[in-house]
Amino acid sequence: MSLTTVDFDRGRVALAYSGDLDTTACIPYLKEHMGCSYVLAVAVDLGQGDELEPLRLKALASGADEAIVIDARHKLILDYGLPALQANAVYNGKYPLSSALARPVITDVVLQAAKDHHCGSVAHGSTGKGNDQIRFDLGIKLLDLDMQILAPAREWSFTRPETVDYIQSHGIHAHVSADKPWGVDLNLLGRNIEAGPIEDLDWVPTEEVWALTADPTTVDHEPDDITVDFHDGVPTGLDGVPLHPVDIFGHLNHVAGRHGIGRLDVIEDRIMGMKSRELYEAPAVTVLLTAHHELEQLALPRDVTSCKAQVDHLLAQYIYDGLWHSPLREHLSAFVKETQAGLNGSITLRLSRGTVTAIRRSSSVSLYNHKLVTYGAGCTFPTGASEGFIEITALAGREWRRARNEIAGPAKTPAIPASENPREPAAAASALGA
């Protein structure tokens, strides 16, 4: 998408509105301190699960001139979640990028809303040290060459209590929970919990922190076996029943969540260089990542999976760093998409007490050949060729060793210098317990 702000009014701003404390405070702040004459609050539905009409009314009550809700659930899954799944995208070895993937979706939607409402500016409520300011700003800059970016929370010097006082002074109710003093970001890909007591590395998360997952240590129901069906590397059904990917994510969040699957407590490397502690719940993504990886191991050649693992790692880094709309991310994704062509099959997984394990695998393009691998009768592997394969594989290394041996000459045992004190070796041996 390419936008232009020619003839657009800089005083008209489209605000990415989540309804939290900071984005709510942005509405009066944009008008009072940043010269905005018109504020459009854009709430993006990514599967938060809440009724978003109250959110829209809250934005209007907070001073927005207009407030709209845009359903982007299909966009999140089809255009962002599935390409990330095909890339097995996990950051820092654990985080499945649920919030990081939502940010370019929000950017796309808000930019389009800005264009539709003739806004020359886009605003967000991200603070000056978080990841989201980078993701929003980079997304806007990479998609639109002219759009002005406003970030009130990066400009003001309010503490959290001062932010509460500010919005209350404008007659806006501050929904701040004293018993749950952490921030939450939720979409179909997962749930992120941060701040408050989570910043204390000695604090053990209590059950009220979690919402999508049961406590895996107390789950008492029987395991569930579930089969994920894939076509071209995309999940297309469960247990043989065709389903839209959005419905697959929703169903797996429920089924895997009741088994306590997808709880994560991680130390994360933020873009700005600091480390933070983050909690995540990603039941559906955890299951689908396991299934997709198993399918690739079954159906892709060894050299392809090895090369792809490097591309997958780089893609996860670019997604986390807010570079979804960069040229390299697009080229890397093109490679990943090519590897998924014809990647069809079914993976059966067992869900139990916080774990997900593949128990059955099948694919129309499976590279698993029982006649080649079996140690039983009927093996077709050409064992007589192995010795020659080993000889050729070792050839270059053996030649390297020969050349260096010729330069070095016969190996010599290094002499051990005699001690000047005859008593020293005995004393040293005694000290070592000899």
Automatic annotation (TrEMBL):
UniProt keyword annotations, A-Z: Amino-acid biosynthesis, Arginine biosynthesis, ATP-binding, Cytoplasm, Ligase, Nucleotide-binding
Gene Ontology CC annotation, any one: cytoplasm
InterPro entries for the chain: Arginosuc_syn_C, Arginosuc_syn_N, Arginosuc_synth, Arginosuc_synth_CS, Arginosuc_synth_type_1_subfam, AS_cat/multimer_dom_body, Rossmann-like_a/b/a_fold
Location(s) in or outside the cell: Cytoplasm
Residues annotated to bind L-aspartate: 127, 131-132
Domain Arginosuccinate synthase-like N-terminal: 12-172
Enzyme Commission number(s) of this protein: 6.3.4.5
Binding site for ATP: 16-24, 125
Reactions catalysed, as given in the entry: L-citrulline + L-aspartate + ATP = 2-(N(omega)-L-arginino)succinate + AMP + diphosphate + H(+)
Chain residue ranges for the region called Disordered: 410-434
Name of the protein: Argininosuccinate synthase
Source organism of this protein record: Nocardioides bruguierae
